[in-house]
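Before going further, learn to read the protein records used in this course. The integers have meaning only within a learned vocabulary of local backbone shapes. The record below shows the convention in full.
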Amino acid sequence: QQRMSRLPASSPATLPASRLRLLVGEDNPINQRVAMALLEKCLADYSAQPRAWMAISNFCLRFHNDTAEIKSQSVTYAQQAVEKFPTSWQVYQHLQRVLYKLEYNPKEKVVALATTALAHTTKNPAFWLLLTDLGRNAFPLDDNATREANLKQNLAFLEKAQTAAPDDHDVMEE
């Protein structure tokens, strides 16, 4: 406590937690290991928060010397977030982004992700509206041979939003 009193007023110890940041020297493997350990601790402490899972997934994706093993951990953490928080649109979008960054041809996995999302019964219209991008990426409309089937899949997201809020005109405007 005596050491804390000697810290300047703007030190991290006196700042609100929302203003604290972690600086990582991405070119330094030791700093990367320290940061990874801190993020894993954060994940253990805040495992009920989707943002904790996405943060460690992002770290694996961005700051680890391009090793395939660490990059694949990014996908694993993102998949675990989808399993743990199946009604959070953010985790679906995060996993989609990770797949597009890491996979040579992520189409099959993005289709599986969209299908997983469509299997849920959440009554939150915003969830469905915010996942329409996932639907468009999984079921593109640019191929005449698949356009009709893919249009049905895309419309399923909008129909779920409408079903969740049938009398809400704002939902239909979105």
Q: What stands out?
A: The chain is about 65% helix and 0% strand. The chain has a mean pLDDT of 81.
